[in-house]
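Q: Okay, next protein. This is Peptidyl-prolyl cis-trans isomerase from Lentisphaera profundi. I've checked the sequence twice, so it should be correct. Can you predict the 3D structure?
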Amino acid sequence: MNSKFFFTTAAFSLMAMSSVFAQEPAKAAAAKPAHDHASHAGKPHVEKSTMTFEKASKVISYNEGINLGQRLSEAKEMDSAEFLKGIQAGVEGKKNTLYAEPVIMEAMNVMRTEMQKRQAADAAKFAEEQKGLSSTAKKDAFGDKAVVKTASGMEYVVLAAGAGENPKATDTVSVHYTGKLLNGTVFDSSVQRGTPVEFPLNGVIPGWTEGVQLMKPGAKYVFYIPSNLAYGPNGQGPIPANADLIFEVELLKIVK
């Protein structure tokens, strides 16, 4: 987790807390009673809270503080005591006299450099893990089927051949698919959702654009897609950076 995350999260939480204080009176004034007792008193009965504004302020403040703390709990680089001192000083309207601007900029640069080193180390470790998993993952995915390797480096096997014409890159297709990491983790599956997906072939990862054009409607393939033909060094959601992926894809139809 990087330093930008803590500062962004902290700012967001504090803004959210300010919003709660600003909106709460308006919400209370507009709130409808949970039960309509008009038949008893001639008008709706509104339960009045005995909580004071000062007590409400304490409750909301503590709740927002604990929410922020939980969101920052993974930020091992953070000095929580210094962070709280900074918040307290800001709440009291004080300026930062503890650290001059050049010192802050230097600290940010040191933090950024260190985080980049850690990310590079994590990426190298992940790449080694991928190498170790690759052969096993291919064996599990491909079974005893004949494997075809394309010029781009993608590999695939044919589970069902299908019939008809192949889609072009400019076509929209309807497919069912299941995507896995090399360790077997399913990160996405239209099969599990029970709903096929339609998309233009030139609007997806290169491995899909290339691979689905090899298929005919009714075909089912398993693709081993190297990271440079998938999401590369950036990753995507649950897909880590530089992850090779395995997809089982069934081409249902070309959408005309």
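A: Here is a summary of the prediction. The longest helix spans residues 101-142. Confidence is low (pLDDT under 50) at residues 1-42.
Q: Noted. On to the next one.
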